[in-house]
Amino acid sequence: MDILSTKGEKLAERPETGDPTIADRVFTTLHSAILTLQMPPGSKFSEAEIAKQLGVSRQPVREAFIRLAQIEFVRIQPKRATEVCKISEAAVLNARFIREALEAAVVRDACENCSDELIDQLEDIVERQRKAVAVNERELFHDLDDAFHRSIAEGSGRGLVWTLINEQKAQMDRVRYLSLAFNEPVVIREHAAIIDALRDRATSRAETAMRHHLSRINSLIAVLRQQHPQYFAATQAVQGTDAGPLNLRVPALVKPAR
Amino acid sequence: MDILSTKGEKLAERPETGDPTIADRVFTTLHSAILTLQMPPGSKFSEAEIAKQLGVSRQPVREAFIRLAQIEFVRIQPKRATEVCKISEAAVLNARFIREALEAAVVRDACENCSDELIDQLEDIVERQRKAVAVNERELFHDLDDAFHRSIAEGSGRGLVWTLINEQKAQMDRVRYLSLAFNEPVVIREHAAIIDALRDRATSRAETAMRHHLSRINSLIAVLRQQHPQYFAATQAVQGTDAGPLNLRVPALVKPAR
DNA sequence: TAGTAAAAACTGGTATGGTAGATTTGTAAA
DNA sequence: TTTACAAATCTACCATACCAGTTTTTACTA
Question: Which residue range or ranges hold the HTH gntR-type domain (chains A, B) (predicted)?
Answer without folding.
Answer: 20-87
